[in-house]
Amino acid sequence: MTLLKQRAFLGKVTREYMVEGGSGGKIEKLPDWARDLAKKYGAQDIEKIEDVFFGPLIDRRSGLRKDDLIELLIDSRAIPNNSDPTIQGMLIATTRNSVELLDKDGKFRSIARDVIVEVRVISHLRPPYIEDDELLTFEKEDIRRRSNIHEQAERQSDGGSDDSHLWG
């Protein structure tokens, strides 16, 4: 399948999703694979967390968020012939070189950013970053945990001093 055909294929599928619900909306209007993941996730009301593109700047919010239901279009040159170029699932994390997701079959996948042609957000499952109290609490606790691990590593290093990495 050529790249142009892949884009047309994804565009057709995505337009269908957008008509049925798109980014936000009711869980019942999501595609089957997305509805199943949203129910496993425990999502209740996804209408309140949709993207806002217009209005005062302070009220706008958009973009990828942790736990989003997404669809990736993969470059046809990076996959075997006769393979489906789309990967559907829930965004777990992004790194400098990859996008990690739990696919619709429940498998963890790490996809190189170099082969991703397009990313479509089907629905958000979490509020925007700054409004997500659970995520902010997690990050504060994670910072404390990392700090404690760093201090413990320093104490366990040679002599307990912080200069064990220096030469001479």
Annotation keywords:
2 domains; 3 helices; 5-stranded antiparallel sheet; SH3 type barrels; 168 residues
Structural overview:
With 168 residues, this protein is α+β, with helices and mostly antiparallel strands. The protein folds into two domains: 3-126, SH3 type barrels; 129-157. The chain is 31% helix and 20% strand. It contains three helices and five strands, in the order H-H-E-E-E-E-E-H. A five-stranded antiparallel β-sheet has the order 4-3-2-1-5, with helices on one face. The protein is globular, with a radius of gyration of 20 Å. The termini are far apart.
Poorly predicted spans: 1-24
Strands side by side in the biggest sheet = 4-3-2-1-5
Radius of gyration: 20 Å
Our count of helices gives: 3
CATH topology grouping of the largest domain: SH3 type barrels
Determine the N-to-C terminus distance: 60 Å
Bin the helical content.
25-40%
Q: Which structural class matches the secondary elements?
A: alpha+beta
CATH class bucket of the largest domain? Mainly Beta
Described by strand count, sense and barrel closure, the largest sheet is: 5 strands, antiparallel
| Average pLDDT taken over every residue | 77
Helix-strand sequence: HHEEEEEH
Which architecture of the largest domain does the CATH hierarchy give at level 2? Roll
Range of strand content: 15-25%
User: How many domains comprise the coordinates?
Assistant: 2
Gross geometry: globular
Q: Would you report the number of β strands?
A: 5
